[in-house]
Design goal:
Low-confidence stretches: 319-358, 368-389
Shape: elongated
Mean pLDDT: 81
Domain ABC transporter: 2-227
Helix content: 25-40%
InterPro entries: AAA+_ATPase, ABC_transporter-like_ATP-bd, P-loop_NTPase
Protein name: ABC transporter ATP-binding protein
Region (Disordered): 310-389
Number of strands: 13
Biased composition (Pro residues): 315-330, 355-372
Strand content: 15-25%
Oligomer: single chain
């Protein structure tokens, strides 16, 4: 088992990890999630004794990594698949690691077969693809048949078959009673692989719970309701009835209604009582990605700004949507859109007020004022197009 208590790491004035406490238990795959720069890599380096914590402690089986006898036989890790001498063959690379740890040479051939590199054992690693390098890194982690395994982005560069193989390998290792700690940015893969999640943001713990509980706690279940498309009045009538009953009703882009705050049975009864026919009434739950985005939206350090070349695009021509209309305001990327996900309730996300609006893109030289743009496009659309080009 891996246990961190009050783990803090500072690099000068920058605090990468602050007062982080969690446990990674054996028998389950524990996913380690967080935005870029959240402190995941720093945390894993402290677990492996590569970085010393400023304060707090982290132990493996009750002992710091550096105090473990013959650590490679107890802990296996994949942090950087490129940390291989390019002139060595796959077999010689693993053989050197085995000799340092007192592991029999026959184990090298075993793990090469496990990761599927048995046919390229004599090839130099500098000629390996990214996916092959990942497989070699996983083989090095498995070399000592350890009880604790840490993987940082293990499916990076793998094809679909390789991703499926890694997923099954993680589950198999956990089913054997091992401690498996996996860091990844692929939410869809974590949803299929992990049983438990530890989520951090800006170096602090945001969540430590099973995957299903995490999704339920950070998303709102909703019902999708559709009335006959040929009878728009029925849709408005149902919206009013549901709102009066305490439901929150949002319009979907395809004409359906998204309803929260009311169970499906209540929605059905209300529609029946209002004499409204239903074409669809189905329950929906957010995905792991949506729940993750909702929880961590305030802890993201790197956001896309507006496209600075957008002013070079030609304005709409007569007959095209948007012709003759004033420019629409650009919604910043960090503002949730209606019908997607809402900010977490106050008090549940410590970073809810942290994000700052992205800096406005500088106006292009000699750009006409917004009030004049529609007039110019109406008077001489063809000339405006030539100027934009």
């Amino acid at each position: 088992m891996i246990e961190a208590v009050g783990l803090t790491k500072r690099y000068g004035a920058k605090t990468a990890v602050y007062n982080l406490s969690f446990q990674v238990r054996p028998g389950v795959v524990t996913g380690f999630l967080g935005p870029n720069g959240s402190g995941k890599s720093t945390t894993m380096r402290m677990i492996l004794g590569l970085d010393a914590p400023t304060s707090g402690r982290v132990t493996i089986g009750g002992h710091p990594f550096r105090q473990l006898p013959n650590a490679p036989r107890q802990v296996g890790a994949l942090l950087d698949a490129k940390a291989v001498h390019g002139g060595r063959s796959a077999r010689n690379h693993l053989l050197s690691l085995a000799q340092l740890a007192g592991i029999p040479a026959r184990r090298v051939d075993e793990v090469l077969g496990v990761v599927g590199l048995q046919d390229v054992t004599k090839r130099r690693s500098k000629g390996f693809s990214l996916g092959m390098g990942q497989r070699l890194g996983i083989a090095a982690a498995l070399l000592g048949d350890p009880q604790v395994l840490l993987f940082d982005e293990p499916v990076n560069g793998l094809d679909p078959e390789g991703i499926l193989w890694v997923r099954n390998l993680m589950k198999k290792l956990a089913a054997e009673g091992r401690t498996v700690f996996v860091s990844s940015h692929l939410m869809s893969e974590m949803a299929l692989t992990a049983d438990h999640l530890i989520v951090i943001g800006r170096g602090q713990l945001l969540a430590d719970m099973p995957v299903k509980q995490f999704i339920s706690a950070n998303s709102a279940d909703f019902a999708r309701v559709r009335t006959p498309d040929t009878e728009p009045g029925q849709r408005e009538k149902l919206s009013g009835v549901l709102a009066e009953a305490g439901g929150q009703v949002l319009s979907e882009t395809d004409g359906a209604l998204r309803v929260t705050g009311l169970p499906l049975s209540r929605i059905s009864d209300l529609a029946h009582g209002a004499d409204v026919r239903l074409w669809e009434l189905s329950p929906h739950q957010a995905s792991l990605e949506e729940a993750y985005m909702r929880l961590t939206q305030g802890a993201v350090d790197y956001r896309s700004s507006d496209d600075k070349l957008a002013h070079l695009q030609a304005p709409p021509q007569p007959g095209q949507p948007g012709y003759g209309l004033p420019p629409q305001p650009v919604v910043p990327a960090d503002v949730p859109q209606q019908g997607w996900y809402a900010p977490p309730p106050p008090g549940q996300n410590p970073y809810a007020a942290a994000p700052q609006p992205p800096a406005a893109a500088p106006a292009p030289p000699q750009a006409p004022p917004p009030s004049a743009a529609p007039q110019q496009s109406l008077q001489k659309p063809s000339d405006t197009t030539e100027d934009a080009r």
